[in-house]
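[Q] Does anyone have a clean structure-token version of this?
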Amino acid sequence: MQRDYEKATPLILRALQIKEKTLGTNHPSTAITLNNLALMHRLQEHYDEAESLYQRSLNIVSTSFGNDHPQVAAALNSLAELYKIQGRDEEANSLYQQSLAIQKAGNDKKTEALFQRIDSIISYNSHLFNIDQAYYDDLKRKIP
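[A] Here you go.
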């Protein structure tokens, strides 16, 4: 299996060079390739190289999308995995917590948006639904 990683690494490096040339060094697609290259280095236990690449990827997605984007959560999680393997448990835990917070906030926003759409549909079509108004109002209060 190790040889497969060694064969894959130059191919991913070539893909990175092409993306950097065509899309630029700070493009989100370049960040994905950086993350893939970092993974290959991590799997080969080249931890310093992996860390540098994961951090570059994280910086690109943070700059491109903002700190609360799911891509940032994924990049934080990748870096946390590396730290966990290295026994850097406090650093890993901190990154896992940041990643989780981003994911939770994203899910809360999606849930809220979904309930707003449902509320609009029910309000607009209330004559079609046989809903007890008190029950409906109570349910709305429980929605985040």
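[Q] Thanks! Anything notable?
[A] The domain at 2-102 is CATH 1.25.40.10 (Serine Threonine Protein Phosphatase 5, Tetratricopeptide repeat).
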